[in-house]
Each structure stands twice: as structure tokens, then as C-alpha cells.
Design a protein that fits this description.
400 residues; mainly alpha; 2 strands
Length: 400
């Protein structure tokens, strides 16, 4: 989408608050989820809960991205999805608290995941539609998502005392209702296309798949999926590992990654102006390799240092990928391009990674004791292979 008008300062603040609330609601539940389930005797389904999100990301983002591009207002879609997320996350928390069983919890998590999967892409679409120079302006606004996620950890640990309590889920539900209400204050982002009935291929977002015919786009999308396979273990298993080495306030500890994310986001515009995209992408993957190497030390210091590198890994690869799409994709396909990125990362990559890491975790366990060094080193082999693949395969705009 092209900007409708240059955003005035107060409008930039409104867009920043959207990212803040969205990320705070996500972080409130996502970081605590693994330990909440463990505390209620549901540790065995932890990897499958993240697979629910991945499965949802394969289904809903392309459809919703297509509707936002052609048919419905992104603001209205975001409002409906935030409200649905709030309802089903509250029901999930109730099911965990009242011991409705693993099957009921997973079913409710799957429905909730269908609502939440396309939302960050829609929020990004709303923000990017208002910017004249996305590469320069997006970073200072996007950093508020990091601040929102960062704030969720200490609130969960020190105010709600909910590192392993369903209070984290109920609080996140209230925040999602707040996101839905906040959409009424946002500048409207109308669809670009026709208002009549859409053919099924457009509803399913299939035109976005033609982006894969472009060699450089294909490498970026494919690498995004591949890097998401080992990184799918980050949230569920980092939280469990922190508990095993004796960290008390796990949600607060996990928020260390957002500090580096703020630093990386604030410096991203400068990097994009001075450094080739290829080296920024490779730096993001490289930080991921170093992080898992620190995890494999199986010490509290190694884990905390590794968590602190998360922001560099995430921002330098995934946020750069978002900006790559905004710069290189035709306006009428940008909503679906962002949705396709979600499908490849949070969908295909994370689904394979969630199932695979659960199998690998079982291999690395003896009784109730996990060989964490073996676990993280095994995942790091995949990450190193992805780094080599991208270094060889991606040429960049100079090759065209």
C-alpha cells in the first residue's frame, strides 16, 4: 500500500501505541505459557501449543492479507480478530485452571491461534500504509512493539506474580480487548481493490505465491522458513531451561531479548542506509548461531547472555525482511506479501520446528532430566546450515 498522507506527529504516536499494545498482549501470554502449562501438569503438550500457532499461520494470514488488500478495512479486520483472541484466550486460561484436559486446552488454543496469527501483519499493514519513507520511519515506530513486549515480562513476574499462573492468560485477554477498542482511534486504511465478491483464488491469497517466481524473493521467503525451524524452540524450551537452572522470574528474564531488540531497531535505519541487505540478513542469522552456542553451555550466565542476543537475531533478519517486502513488492500485493512471510515463518517453519524440536527434546531426555547441551547444539547445526545456504544463494539487488 502507498501512504494515504504524510503522518503527523500525533498520528505517529497513535501508530506506535498500536504496536505497543499489540506486543504487550502477545508477550503477556506467550512468554509465560510453557511454565503455566508445566505448573498445571500439562508439560507434555508445550511444544504442541506452539504448533497450534504455526498451523494457524498456514491457514489464516494469506486469507486475511488478501481481504485487507482488496475487500475489507485492515482496521475492522484487526478489531474482530483482537476481540476473538481475547475471548478464546480467556476460555483457554479457564480450561487450564479448571483441568478440562489436554484435548480441550489444545482445541481452544488452536481456535485462539487462528484469530491471532494474521494480526501482526495487519498491524504492520496499517502502519506502513501511513509512511512515506518506510525504511527511515518504520524503525522508530516498530521499536514500540519491542517496548510493549519488554514491559510484559516484568509485569507478569513482579506485578501479577504469574510466571506459572493462568492470571497471565486472563490479563492478556483484557489487553487484547484493549487492542480491539483502540482500532477505533486509528487512521482508516481502506482496501485497494474492488468491493464486489472475490474469486476463491483471491480469498485464499494464491496470487501472492507468484512472488516466489522471483529468485531473490524466493530466497528470502525460503530462508525465513528455514531459520524459523530451529528458532521455534526459543520460547517453549528457553523458558523450561531457565527453570531448570534455577532462574526464578522467568518472564522478566526472557524480556532481556527485547533490550537488544530496541538497540537493533533504533540502529536499523542507519544500517540499511550504509550496509548491503545481504550482510544485515547474515548478521541476524549469525547472532542466532552465537545464542544457541551460549545456551549449549548449560549455565545460568550462558542462558541469560543468549536471551539478550535474541533481539539482534530477530530484528536484523525478520524486521529487515518486512522492510525488504515493503520496498520491493508492488503496492497491490504488499498485504499478501507480509502475510506470506508470516505463513513461511510462523506457519511452515514454526510448525516443522515445533514438531521436530519436541521429538529432539524427547531424544535428549533421560527420565525427567534434559541434556540441554545436546539439545541446543543439535538445533544449532541446522542454523549454521541455513547461514551457509543464504550466504551462497542470495545475491541481492546488484545481481539484477
Amino acid at each position: 500500500m502507498r501512504p494515504l498522507a504524510a503522518p503527523v506527529p500525533h498520528e505517529r504516536w497513535r501508530l506506535s501505541v498500536l504496536f505497543f499494545l499489540h506486543a504487550q498482549a502477545s508477550g503477556m501470554w506467550s512468554v509465560a505459557a510453557a511454565n503455566v502449562l508445566r505448573a498445571h501438569g500439562l508439560e507434555r503438550i508445550v511444544p504442541f501449543t506452539f504448533a497450534c500457532g504455526a498451523l494457524a499461520a498456514m491457514i489464516s494470514p494469506l486469507i486475511l492479507g488478501s481481504l485487507a488488500d482488496q475487500h475489507l478495512s485492515a482496521n475492522r479486520l484487526l478489531r474482530w480478530l483482537a476481540t476473538g483472541t481475547a475471548v478464546f484466550l480467556a476460555l483457554t486460561s479457564l480450561a487450564i485452571e479448571r483441568s478440562w484436559g489436554a484435548g480441550s486446552v489444545l482445541a481452544l488454543l488452536q481456535i485462539q491461534a487462528l484469530f491471532v496469527a494474521p494480526m501482526f501483519g495487519l498491524s504492520s499493514t496499517i502502519v506502513l500504509a501511513r509512511l512515506r519513507e518506510p525504511q527511515r520511519e518504520f524503525g522508530p515506530i516498530r521499536v514500540w512493539a519491542t517496548i510493549g513486549w519488554l514491559s510484559a515480562g516484568p509485569i507478569t513476574s513482579f506485578i501479577l506474580l504469574a510466571d506459572s499462573s493462568t492470571r497471565a492468560g486472563f490479563a492478556a485477554s483484557l489487553l487484547w480487548l484493549g487492542v480491539g477498542a483502540y482500532t477505533f482511534t486509528l487512521p482508516p486504511v481502506p482496501p485497494l481493490g474492488r468491493c464486489g465478491p472475490l474469486p476463491w483464488r483471491d480469498i485464499l491469497g494464491l496470487p501472492a505465491l507468484r512472488l516466489l517466481a522471483h529468485r531473490e524473493h524466493r530466497i528470502v521467503f525460503l530462508t525465513s522458513a528455514l531459520i524459523s525451524v530451529p528458532l521455534a524452540a526459543f520460547y517453549p524450551f528457553t523458558a523450561l531451561h531457565l527453570g531448570d537452572v534455577g532462574v526464578q522470574h522467568i518472564s522478566a528474564a526472557m524480556s532481556l531479548g527485547q533490550i537488544s531488540e530496541i538497540i537493533a531497531t533504533c540502529g536499523l535505519a542507519t544500517l540499511l542506509a550504509r550496509v548491503r541487505l545481504k550482510w544485515i540478513f547474515l548478521s541476524g542469522i549469525g547472532f542466532g548461531v552465537v545464542r544457541f552456542a551460549l545456551y549449549a553451555l548449560d549455565t545460568k550466565a550462558g542462558l541469560l547472555c543468549g536471551v539478550a542476543l535474541h533481539g539482534f537475531c530477530y530484528t536484523l533478519f525478520f524486521v529487515t525482511a518486512q522492510l525488504y517486502l515493503e520496498k520491493r513488492i508492488p503496492p497491490e500485493l504488499r498485504g499478501r506479501a507480509q502475510a506470506l512471510l508470516v505463513l513461511m515463518t510462523a506457519g511452515v517453519g514454526t510448525f516443522v520446528g515445533s514438531i521436530g524440536s519436541n521429538w529432539w527434546w524427547a531424544v535428549c531426555k533421560t527420565g525427567t532430566v534434559t541434556n540441554w547441551s545436546q539439545f541446543w547444539n543439535g538445533l544449532n547445526v541446522i542454523l549454521v546450515a541455513v547461514l551457509v545456504f543464504f550466504a551462497v544463494a542470495y545475491r541481492g539487488v546488484r545481481s539484477e
